[in-house]
């Protein structure tokens, strides 16, 4: 086991020097002191701390050395390293390997490598921004700090940087490029051997020598002056079109085309809507085809730029649309960074006279490799632009979200980053709606719509609705319905219930509308975190609203009052009311006065158990006279009424009260039939003994008795059906649903189902009109039986009276005759 001294930095550094130089501790004392000074110094690299930029430099250095296989292998190894969280300071390790691999004894040429050119030509911030390593911490339209440490994540969601010049494709490394100049072949040594050799020679030379090399010629042995002259002579051509167009001229034209600017030899064809090489240009087919392939980036750039320029000035496009344009601008900005790098290298080549044949110079084939990833990104953005044409708001967010359903992680991360920016206004609308009940949707982008013309009494039913076309595809219909109910409940409490309780006291959840985790919760955990927020706000708000309606406005008590009075559930009250109203209701309807009937109603209330109801309920109970038709009696126009207002009118709407009125009239008429048949039975019992002396009426009275008994049986069966099969069963279902209701909509829906059920089962719907007519005919027959029996009884009693008078006169006459004979 090693002692603490053997693990100290000094001992380890000395062992490293001995291992690299292959000498004893005494022989490396000078080198060890120098290494201690270097490590303890405050030297810092002048390059940006960008892991991917260093990786790009290493790959381009390998390509410059004609080691394309090693470059592809390094790219794959770096990808695997990045996907694992073992190392934290990957940039430092890669930068150390890059620095040690460069031999400082070799005097660098004017243009040593592509990476060196980038470092010399660009400021500190002109570099690649490959990936967000973690989820975006906020939704503002800005990239995170490049100097922040990065955490590897295989499922990163952010901009992968359109300026990332990489050999990696969407699902792996691109095919290894062939040697850049024809006729050349190079057997690249292994990456490990090369790095070990260069690292050892680098450190050994640094510690032992400080004499720079005197070599000043450029690579391949071409002097600078010759190279500069050759480059200029190749790039300066005759404008007459007879001289062959060089590849250098095409490279310069391509860089302009990348920005949407026509070059000398490559121009935009308006008829074919594409970039084409001038027909008079003398080019080989391979160069012409390569130039056309590269020019596609310019066409894609123009397509995206045209869309953003048009939509950015259109205010009616809304906040979601402007966020989409801002996301496109952000991606174009990354694309422009790549172009600035390429222009800087080209300008440096011109200034220093670098030959096109050098390993570090720009060629069309190198541009194909370096623009592979940017082209894929531009194609994705152009497809998004086409798919989003004519869309705005939530519909636009749905269109962007549709492109996240792909198996390509590179494309998915790009679209998810754009979607997080596009959805930021929708999230702002949503959180403000569910936590404050406020809806500021100037451009009609949110999926909740408000109608300012609707009055307060119809707020719950008509003021707020769902715009189904604006519901984003990443929000389900159930979630959108809950979002609508949350904000609607808050507004209902404030405007209708006049409850100004702060929302924070209603909803026992922390408000997180500005939380950096909102976008991540929405797109990575829709079923848990985001769903949890919606459910918590929904349950808390709905529960508070139902508590206010039940405790402050006695919603359930009013519902039971409807059952007792309008559905004739209070039997003693209804029977006593009929007894009191009979003298009034038998009169013609035109002779009735509402104040007289109201007084009778109050008398019936005081004389029955109805007096023990709440004064608030009894105050709402009233008499209503229906429209009078010719020949109507009081029974035809009388009805009870129940006044509703305020929040309870949301449940008991005008339509509901009209249903209650129809059901009351039906039940009142059926109850009257029962009342009439009861009077008929009383008449039978009272007159049976009196009319025994009139045997001629016995047959007629017997038939009346049988008919009345059949009618009583029919009415009793109908009353049983209405009372138990219809009212009680339906009421029990309604009450159970109301007890389990989670929001006001559930209560309203259950109440409407209850009314529809009793309307249908009481034969009051349109499909039962024929049966209802037959039933009314039976009711009319009951009334006619009562009238006929009353007429029979009157006639029989009159006949009985006459017979009694006749018998009395007969007796008197006989007495008088007897008296006369006696005299």
UniProtKB/TrEMBL annotation:
<feature type="domain" description="Gamma tubulin complex component protein N-terminal">
    <location>
        <begin position="251"/>
        <end position="552"/>
    </location>
</feature>
<protein>
    <submittedName>
        <fullName>Tubulin gamma complex component 3</fullName>
    </submittedName>
</protein>
<dbReference type="GO" id="GO:0051225">
    <property type="term" value="P:spindle assembly"/>
</dbReference>
<dbReference type="GO" id="GO:0051011">
    <property type="term" value="F:microtubule minus-end binding"/>
</dbReference>
<dbReference type="GO" id="GO:0005813">
    <property type="term" value="C:centrosome"/>
</dbReference>
<dbReference type="GO" id="GO:0000922">
    <property type="term" value="C:spindle pole"/>
</dbReference>
<dbReference type="GO" id="GO:0000278">
    <property type="term" value="P:mitotic cell cycle"/>
</dbReference>
<dbReference type="GO" id="GO:0007020">
    <property type="term" value="P:microtubule nucleation"/>
</dbReference>
<keyword id="KW-0493">Microtubule</keyword>
<comment type="similarity">
    <text>Belongs to the TUBGCP family.</text>
</comment>
<dbReference type="Pfam" id="PF17681">
    <property type="entry name" value="GCP_N_terminal"/>
</dbReference>
<dbReference type="InterPro" id="IPR040457">
    <property type="entry name" value="GCP_C"/>
</dbReference>
<dbReference type="InterPro" id="IPR007259">
    <property type="entry name" value="GCP"/>
</dbReference>
<dbReference type="GO" id="GO:0005874">
    <property type="term" value="C:microtubule"/>
</dbReference>
<dbReference type="InterPro" id="IPR042241">
    <property type="entry name" value="GCP_C_sf"/>
</dbReference>
<dbReference type="GO" id="GO:0031122">
    <property type="term" value="P:cytoplasmic microtubule organization"/>
</dbReference>
<dbReference type="GO" id="GO:0000930">
    <property type="term" value="C:gamma-tubulin complex"/>
</dbReference>
<dbReference type="InterPro" id="IPR041470">
    <property type="entry name" value="GCP_N"/>
</dbReference>
<keyword id="KW-0963">Cytoplasm</keyword>
<feature type="domain" description="Gamma tubulin complex component C-terminal">
    <location>
        <begin position="555"/>
        <end position="809"/>
    </location>
</feature>
<dbReference type="Pfam" id="PF04130">
    <property type="entry name" value="GCP_C_terminal"/>
</dbReference>
<dbReference type="GO" id="GO:0051321">
    <property type="term" value="P:meiotic cell cycle"/>
</dbReference>
<keyword id="KW-0206">Cytoskeleton</keyword>
<dbReference type="GO" id="GO:0043015">
    <property type="term" value="F:gamma-tubulin binding"/>
</dbReference>
